[in-house]
Design a protein that fits this description.
By secondary structure, the chain is of the alpha/beta class. It has helices spanning 2-14, 103-108, 154-157, 177-180, 197-206, 232-237, 262-269, 285-297, and strands spanning 56-58, 78-91, 94-100, 115-119, 128-131, 142-148, 164-168, 187-193, 213-220, 241-247, 258-259, 277-282, 305-306. The strands form two sheets. Strands 1, 2, 3, 4, 5, 6 and 7 form a seven-stranded antiparallel beta sheet that branches. Strands 11-10-9-8-12-13 form a six-stranded parallel beta sheet, sandwiched between helices. A hairpin with an 8-residue loop joins strand 4 (115-119) and strand 5 (128-131). Helix 7 (262-269) runs parallel beside helix 8.
Amino acid sequence: MYALGALIATVAAAAVPTTLAFSPSFTPLLRSSVATRTSLCSTSFAARPMGGACSFHRAAAPVAKKRMVVFLQMADDTFASCKVVSNEEAAKDLRLITVDVGSTLSGEYKVPGQYVKMRKDDTMEKPGFFAIASAPGATSSSFDFLIKRTDGSSWLCDTAAGGEVEVSTVQGPGYRYAEKFGSDIEEVIVLATGSGIAPLKAAIESKDLEGKKVRLYYGCKTPEACAFADLVSKWEEECGAEVVQCFSQAGDLPKGARKGYVQAAVLEDGLDKPEKTGVLFCGVNDMVKEAKEALEKAGVKPESMLMNF
């Protein structure tokens, strides 16, 4: 039943804009079917022991009622009460938060790009969707998250170390490059903007792409808004990725950085073999839309361009 529930969440997520996929404001958009507000399937999760600081409990099932709107109801979620290990500033309006999720939940995370839902407690009607920023297996019992401060996420940004949050089971298919990128894909272009770097950081640090040429184009408004700047050398030296930082509003640029947008930078650099190129995206809708259109025109196959949901 878990796999079916995850599939429903995945299908629902794929129906909404990129910028909402990991946002607290995304939840209402998942609620859209015709006439009857009932669950597409019902999970049968039993409470189970967790390693670390977590214990699972099942969210209450929604009450069915008639509505004259388009409506798609996600399956019930199971949440665990978990402790925040650390909460640090990652960049302007961004927090790097580590949560002890326990060994069992940590073991469910298999593919970079997967996500969880988080909420303050069971009185919170709309949990947020957050991509996991650490690679699978990076630790035995914790996840890292890069959280952009918004009205819907301020509660999480303000949760200090030692505080508790509720975390769902791991959801979504993640970046399916193991399935989509065969030996014919020789180069992988990675395009990220803002907090969209989170799941792509996980992909790069997983080293799943070893053996392929990897170029990361990471765009922010200014250097002050750029998270993980201290990891660029690690990504290049240990993970084999060429990193190009792009700033749309910067005055003085860091060494090697460019003024402008990531979609323009990748086209300026060009593609050696478009038909043998794969692409990973996460970021604002305009970037994803423009980059997809331009790269397809350049010869990249649509099926080789992947989102994480």
